[in-house]
Task: inverse folding
């Protein structure tokens, strides 16, 4: 394979992951088809198997990519507020609980995948990728416990994250009504 062909293959691979991750967060895992994703990047379904062994492998990689994207975004807030953890926290709250984030699940939090992932087998690759991504998200927030109990400080962080995720998910479910904005505002105000 020529260098150009390898470069094209690598570019297609990254595009495939990016599009799948975005579409799965926007529409749900089951609503995203291999032919649909492949046609969006200008390839045929047959070419998919040069990149992934199965749709499950693509789903797993898309989940990993969505958590990586979230970590990168949080890293940007950390870099902007490197000397002020409180300002970093407020910046995260402002973004996470915003109308923009609510209205753009494709570039947002992996929580958009939680419901679909919860319906997979507990030992499935997508479930394992989601759990690992969540542990990594907890770790960037200072929660390194991988056992079954959190200390009080870790429990407070986990509770705050769950309030954010729950608020965002309910605001998305109520989008288009005044309730949606009220949910975002209430959770943001309470956590700030």
Result:
């Amino acid at each position: 394979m020529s260098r150009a062909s390898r470069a094209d293959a690598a570019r297609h691979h990254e595009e495939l992951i990016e599009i799948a991750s975005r579409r799965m967060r926007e529409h749900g895992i089951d609503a995203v088809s291999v032919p649909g994703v492949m046609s969006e990047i200008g390839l045929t379904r047959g070419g998919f198997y040069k990149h992934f062994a199965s749709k499950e492998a693509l789903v797993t990689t898309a989940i990993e990519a969505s958590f990586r994207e979230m970590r990168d975004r949080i890293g940007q807030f950390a870099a902007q507020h490197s000397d002020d953890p409180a300002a970093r926290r407020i910046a995260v709250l402002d973004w996470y609980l915003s109308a923009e984030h609510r209205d753009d699940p494709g570039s947002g939090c992996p929580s958009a995948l939680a419901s679909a992932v919860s319906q997979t087998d507990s030992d499935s690759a997508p479930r394992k990728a989601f759990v690992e991504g969540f542990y990594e998200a907890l770790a960037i927030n200072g929660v390194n416990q991988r056992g079954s109990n959190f200390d009080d400080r870790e429990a407070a962080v986990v509770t705050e994250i769950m309030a954010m995720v729950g608020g965002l998910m309910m605001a998305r479910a109520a989008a288009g009504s005044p309730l949606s904005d009220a949910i975002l505002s209430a959770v943001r105000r309470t956590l700030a």
Notes: The CA atoms of residues 29 and 161 lie 23 Å apart. Residues 55-80 form the longest helix (26 residues). The mean pLDDT is 92.
